Amino acid sequence: MPLVTLTGLAPDLDGAGIIIDFFTGTTQYYFKYHHYQGHSFLFAFLTASIAAFLAKSQKTLGWFLSLFVIHLHFICDL
């Protein structure tokens, strides 16, 4: 299930602000938003729900696996 793998990587999308910070030199998006927006239970629930909606089969299993890998991501960040 590549969709489950992508949901495990999704919490770090908020880290893309470091690119903007690098080129502008004046913004602080990475330090303000990384680990605050994408690393929340609301984000985990929404991402798992979107993954289940996009899954072609076994939507319930996809939802639980997505929720599991997102929380595994959170644990590994600790």
Summary tags:
mainly alpha; about 70% helix; elongated; 5 helices; single chain; about 80 residues
Overview of the structural elements:
The protein is an all-alpha fold. 69% of the residues lie in helices and 0% in strands. Helix 1 runs parallel beside helix 5 (59-77).
Summarize the structure.
With 78 residues, this protein is mainly alpha-helical.
Topology (elements, then pairings):
Layout: H1 2-9, H2 17-24, H3 29-33, H4 41-54, H5 59-77
What general form does the structure show?
elongated
Strand-and-helix sequence, N→C?
HHHHH
Mean pLDDT: 91
Q: Main β-sheet: number of strands, strand sense, barrel status?
A: none
Q: Compute the gyration radius: what is it?
A: 14 Å
Distance between the termini: 25 Å
Strand-residue proportion: under 5%
The total beta strand count reads: 0
Low-confidence regions: none
Category from helices, strands and their pairing: mainly alpha
Task: Estimate nothing, just give the exact number of structural domains.
Answer: 1
Q: What is the overall number of helices?
A: 5
Binned, the helix content reads 55-70%
